[in-house]
């Protein structure tokens, strides 16, 4: 029996040399690169660049061409006449075409402030995408670890199947020689059929979870690939939500700066080159060319405290962001405490599983000797074998649950 126990351990611990392996890190990388939402990061960058370029065009001269033709019911006339002078009245049909140029000289840095605000707005929406992508990691973890659990359970089942097959051959020989009843063989064959049934169910569930991973990562995963158990659980990163709160606060600060700059005076230079009838000389009733150059200052010195109220609103918004951040951090602390407790419970459970397995192995060795001597039936032996397998299976489940809890701890903490 000792060699069969060794075979069981061999099947459980045998490494899969020469076979392709898939890591959790590879799945996490794939979901952040291939998931459709990830494409928005580049699109938002392009959108922000175009909008910034549009803002910066405000520093360039503004050039307009205008033309008009009018007919009016009356024109200016002198109510008196002057001797030796003949002043013709203006035509009622008048024409004008102008080229107007306006160049911004000073606006308090309003264009630059708008560009900075657009920058921070794009960073905000991109970080919101990162938050959504980060939340997918929990789904990837669950599917990956479920496949890993089924994979390791199948290894145990295969080892048990090998052990049952060998034991069935032994019992068959005893039945053939009249040393054991035929029912002893039937019991082992029934258990062997049950193992095959469980293997088939596990393979179907494994196939389903692999399909879920394929949909999340937008990759094709071979059904023969080996899922590698993660070993690293440390991280120095932080939750993307915390960075999002910081960016939201920065956006509100930039908005306040933009409000301050919008109240500063604006100075523009302008020029107009034109041709029309009449021109600038209203007494010359003919087509003339003309030009005008100058400076224009605009300063809204009183806005009925509109800017003050808007700034106060932005300050309240900053406080709201701060309360959301504090609430988030509190919830994170509670979740970390719960998961840490779960990790400690599972660690203790695995230690107990090891002790139980050692005792069950001793019992199974004794049962194997008793079965050979006819002291117990194959049903009694099978009961002990099943209890040993259940203990090993429970330990595998606890190990996978511990890995998943450790992964979730790092996801909650920030990884």
UniProtKB/TrEMBL annotation:
Its main location: membrane. SUPFAM superfamilies: Outer membrane efflux proteins (OEP) (SSF56954). InterPro entries: TolC-like. It is found in: Cell outer membrane. Keywords: Cell outer membrane, Membrane, Transmembrane, Transmembrane beta strand. The keyword Transmembrane applies. This is TolC family protein.
């Amino acid at each position: 029996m000792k060699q069969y126990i060794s075979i069981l351990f061999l099947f459980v611990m045998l490494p899969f040399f020469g076979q392709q392996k898939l890591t959790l890190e590879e799945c996490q990388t794939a979901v952040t690169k291939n998931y459709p939402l990830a494409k928005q990061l580049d699109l938002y960058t392009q959108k922000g660049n175009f909008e910034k370029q549009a803002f910066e065009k405000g520093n360039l001269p503004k050039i307009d061409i205008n033309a008009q033709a009018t007919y009016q019911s009356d024109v200016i006339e002198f109510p008196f006449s002057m001797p030796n002078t003949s002043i013709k009245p203006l035509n009622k049909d008048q024409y004008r075409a102008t080229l107007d140029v306006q160049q911004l000289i000073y606006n308090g840095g309003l264009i630059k402030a708008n560009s900075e605000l657009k920058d921070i707005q794009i960073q905000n929406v991109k970080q919101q995408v990162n938050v959504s992508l980060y939340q997918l990691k929990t789904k990837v973890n669950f599917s990956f670890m479920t496949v890993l659990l089924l994979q390791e359970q199948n290894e145990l089942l295969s080892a048990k199947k090998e052990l049952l097959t060998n034991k069935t051959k032994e019992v068959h020989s005893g039945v053939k020689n009249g040393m054991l009843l035929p029912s002893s063989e039937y019991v082992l064959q029934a258990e062997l059929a049950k193992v095959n049934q469980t293997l088939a169910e596990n393979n179907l569930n494994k196939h389903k979870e692999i399909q879920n991973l394929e949909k999340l990562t937008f990759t094709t995963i071979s059904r023969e690939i080996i899922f590698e158990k993660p070993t690293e659980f440390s991280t120095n990163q932080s939750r993307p939500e915390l960075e999002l709160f910081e960016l939201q606060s920065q956006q509100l600060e930039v908005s306040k700066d933009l409000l301050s700059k919008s109240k500063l005076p604006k100075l523009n230079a302008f020029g107009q080159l034109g041709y029309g009838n009449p021109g600038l000389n209203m007494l010359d009733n003919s087509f003339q060319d003309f030009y005008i150059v100058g400076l224009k200052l605009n300063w809204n010195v009183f806005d009925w405290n509109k800017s003050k109220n808007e700034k106060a609103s932005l300050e309240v918004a900053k406080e709201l962001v701060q309360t959301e951040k504090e609430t988030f951090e509190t919830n994170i602390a509670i979740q970390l405490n719960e998961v840490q407790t779960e990790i400690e419970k599972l660690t203790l459970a695995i230690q107990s599983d090891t002790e139980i397995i050692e005792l069950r192995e001793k019992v199974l060795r004794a049962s194997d000797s008793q079965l050979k001597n006819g002291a117990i039936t194959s049903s009694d032996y099978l009961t002990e074998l099943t209890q040993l397998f259940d203990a090993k299976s429970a330990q595998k489940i606890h190990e996978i649950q511990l890995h998943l809890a450790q992964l979730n701890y790092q996801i909650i903490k920030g990884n």
